[in-house]
Backbone:
């Protein structure tokens, strides 16, 4: 029986080969049919849109200004960098941070190579450092120098005359003085030229009965001691924190929605002086008589990506859903992070679709076939109703990491 089956198989195999030799056009036709079936299955699986596979992304890597386009399954910037074999040194800078997820196609990563910079400290000492930092204050601090908030730090270009080749960082030091405010000693750094200018700069108000030593026309020099005196009055001082302000820089080298901290910033300090009112030796009230800035805050500098570079398949789906092109960046940001543009994405909690509707039954009721265009219309209605539009949804997502 087994021998008969083997002989039958051989005869069928020969007949099949003979049949193909007679009709050689069958193979390419079968290939075309098979390819069409595969493409059709993919399109139907994505609701009629050819969206990028959820486990891979196209990344634009800019290394020293040179662009490389990478197709990667790396989940984070650090994972991609470790695979790219870039031979980085400690002083090189990668933006955004290594822990940043890669959530979408055309995501931008920048590698800044360290370069030599000469630091000139108050036109006196010089120090050459290797750095890729973009903040002159951070360059100086990274080189081990103490820089006070009132010191002025700036980039410049060296010259042969000053024997500096390439880039330089200039530190213009503020004078350190001691201000005795109603008996409370305060160390202050300032560029003020006179005592009067300093008092005005720091918000010190000279009331009737107050005296200032030395006089307000006195030039400010390093280690000068200034006293503001009020006789016959009991005072108390309290130190308070001045929060660091945030400075936003729009940066076209970063993808839309990406942020990078280029200067951490630091809080300042102010001293609030109260005049104490007493009765029978006990405090019964107090009144603010001075709010003096002892140390200015250093701003936190944040670079915010502004480049919107979305793959064509996604823009076509958004256009078909009637979404304004002005909202493409917001939509791409939210959908990339919610589902990675996978219309069939479902999380452990049962949330479903491009925008992760919870429960998923709400989405299937509106879009039974999970068509991507239908889904975007559904989620646009959600964004309008809850956040006033995609811009509001984007802002909420950035602050809460969900929407």
Residues:
């Amino acid at each position: 029986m087994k021998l008969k089956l083997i002989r039958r198989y051989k005869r069928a195999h020969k007949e099949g080969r003979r049949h193909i030799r007679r009709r050689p056009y069958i193979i390419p036709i079968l290939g075309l049919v098979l390819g069409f079936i595969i493409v059709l299955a993919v399109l139907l699986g994505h609701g009629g849109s050819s969206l990028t596979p959820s486990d891979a992304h196209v990344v634009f890597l800019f290394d020293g200004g040179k662009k490389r386009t990478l197709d990667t399954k790396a989940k984070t910037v650090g994972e991609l960098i470790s695979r790219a074999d870039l031979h980085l040194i400690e002083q090189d800078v990668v933006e955004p941070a290594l822990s940043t997820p890669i959530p979408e196609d055309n995501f931008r990563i920048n590698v800044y190579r360290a370069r030599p910079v000469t630091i000139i400290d108050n036109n006196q000492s010089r120090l050459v450092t290797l750095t890729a930092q973009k903040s002159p204050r951070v360059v100086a601090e990274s080189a081990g120098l103490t820089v006070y908030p009132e010191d002025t730090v700036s980039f410049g270009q060296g010259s042969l005359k000053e024997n500096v080749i390439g880039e330089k960082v200039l530190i213009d030091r503020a004078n350190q003085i001691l201000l005795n405010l109603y008996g409370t000693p305060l160390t202050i750094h300032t560029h003020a030229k006179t005592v009067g200018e300093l008092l005005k700069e720091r918000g010190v108000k000279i009331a009737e009965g107050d005296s200032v030593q030395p006089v307000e026309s006195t030039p400010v020099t390093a280690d000068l001691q200034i006293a503001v005196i009020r006789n016959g009055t009991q005072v108390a001082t309290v130190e308070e924190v001045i929060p660091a302000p945030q400075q936003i820089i729009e940066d076209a080298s970063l993808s839309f929605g990406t942020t990078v901290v280029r200067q951490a910033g630091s809080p300042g300090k102010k001293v609030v002086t109260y005049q104490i009112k007493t009765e029978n030796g006990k405090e019964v009230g107090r009144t603010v008589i001075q709010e003096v800035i002892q140390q200015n805050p250093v701003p936190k500098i944040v670079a915010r990506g502004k480049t919107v570079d979305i793959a064509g398949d996604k823009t076509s789906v958004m256009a078909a859903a009637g979404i304004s092109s002005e909202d493409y960046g917001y939509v791409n940001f939210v959908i990339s992070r919610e589902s990675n543009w996978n219309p069939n994405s479902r999380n452990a909690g049962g949330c479903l679709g491009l925008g992760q509707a919870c429960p998923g039954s709400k989405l299937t009721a509106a879009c039974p076939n999970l068509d991507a265009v239908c889904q975007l219309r559904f989620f646009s209605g959600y964004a309008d109703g809850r956040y006033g539009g995609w811009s509001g949804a984007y802002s909420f997502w950035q602050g809460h990491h969900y929407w």
Q: What stands out?
A: The CA atoms of residues 4 and 93 lie 73 Å apart. The domain at 181-245+265-298 is CATH 2.20.230 (Resuscitation-promoting factor rpfb fold).
